[in-house]
Amino acid sequence: MTPKIPPTRASATLTQNPSAKPAASSRLLALALLVVLLAAWEITVRQAGISALVLPAPSAVATTLWSSLASGYLWPHIGATLAEMLLGLLIGGAAGLGIGVALAESALLDRVLKPYVIVSQVVPKLALAPLFVLWFGFGMAPTVVMTALICFFPLMENTLTSLRQVDPNRLQLFRMLGATRAQVLLRLKLPSGLPGILAGLRVALVLALVGAVVGEFIGASRGLGAVIIAAQGMMDTPLMFAALVAIAAIGLLGYQATLMLERRLLRPYTDQS
C-alpha cells in the first residue's frame, strides 16, 4: 500500500487559493511584455539612429533617472508632487464622499445641487488654472485646489450611485425593525456601497496625480510637472522621460495601495459570505 504524502505548505496554499498560480503567471507575462517592448524600443532607436532629442533610448532614460535620483535632484520634486496629490485627494475625496452621502439621503438637495456639481465638472480645469494662480498665488495652493476639483466628482458620483443601489428587501427589513435613518446609513447603506465607493477612490487617486502634474505645468517651481517644463526648455528629452517614469511609478504604487486598502476593508464582508 502506497503511503500518502502529506501536502507541503506551498501546495496547501495553492489548494486553498487556486487563483494564486494564474495571478503569478499573469504578472510574469506582464513583466515579459514590458521587457519585449523596452528591447524593441532600444533596438529601434539604435538601428534607426534616432536622436536622443527626439526619442531617447530606454538605457539613456534609465541612466538619467538614476543620476537624478542619486544626486538628489528629483527627490524634492517627487515629494512636492506627492504632497499636492495627497492633499488634493484628501480635500476632494472628503468633499466628494460627504456631498455624495448628502445627495443620496436628500432628494431635495439632489435636485438643487446636482446641476451645479455637473457644471463645475464640465468646465475644463486647465482653463481655470490661470484664475487659481491669480486667486491663490504661485506655489502649492492652486495645484491642490485644481487636484481637489478633479478628484472630487468620481468619488461623489460613485458614492451617490452606490448608496442608492441598496437591496430594497434589506432596506425594508431595517425599517420594519425600527432602525433610525443614521443606523440605516451606517449599518446598511455604507457597508453595502463600500465596493463602489472604493472603486471611486481608485479613480480619484489616478485623477489626483494627473491634476497635480497638470497644475504644476502652470506657475509651479517644484514638482515633476515643473521638471517636465524645465526639461522642455532645456531640450533635455531624457530628463522629460525620466520624470514621466517617476510619475508612472507613483501612479502604479498609489493604485496598488488603494487595492490593498480595498481588500482590507472588504475582508470582513467577504469572510462572512
From TrEMBL:
<feature type="transmembrane region" description="Helical">
    <location>
        <begin position="87"/>
        <end position="109"/>
    </location>
</feature>
<dbReference type="Pfam" id="PF00528">
    <property type="entry name" value="BPD_transp_1"/>
</dbReference>
<keyword id="KW-0812">Transmembrane</keyword>
<dbReference type="InterPro" id="IPR000515">
    <property type="entry name" value="MetI-like"/>
</dbReference>
<protein>
    <submittedName>
        <fullName>Riboflavin transport system permease protein RibX</fullName>
    </submittedName>
</protein>
<keyword id="KW-0813">Transport</keyword>
<keyword id="KW-0472">Membrane</keyword>
<comment type="similarity">
    <text>Belongs to the binding-protein-dependent transport system permease family.</text>
</comment>
<keyword id="KW-1003">Cell membrane</keyword>
<feature type="domain" description="ABC transmembrane type-1">
    <location>
        <begin position="78"/>
        <end position="262"/>
    </location>
</feature>
<feature type="transmembrane region" description="Helical">
    <location>
        <begin position="129"/>
        <end position="155"/>
    </location>
</feature>
<dbReference type="InterPro" id="IPR035906">
    <property type="entry name" value="MetI-like_sf"/>
</dbReference>
<feature type="transmembrane region" description="Helical">
    <location>
        <begin position="239"/>
        <end position="261"/>
    </location>
</feature>
<feature type="transmembrane region" description="Helical">
    <location>
        <begin position="197"/>
        <end position="219"/>
    </location>
</feature>
<feature type="transmembrane region" description="Helical">
    <location>
        <begin position="57"/>
        <end position="75"/>
    </location>
</feature>
<keyword id="KW-1133">Transmembrane helix</keyword>
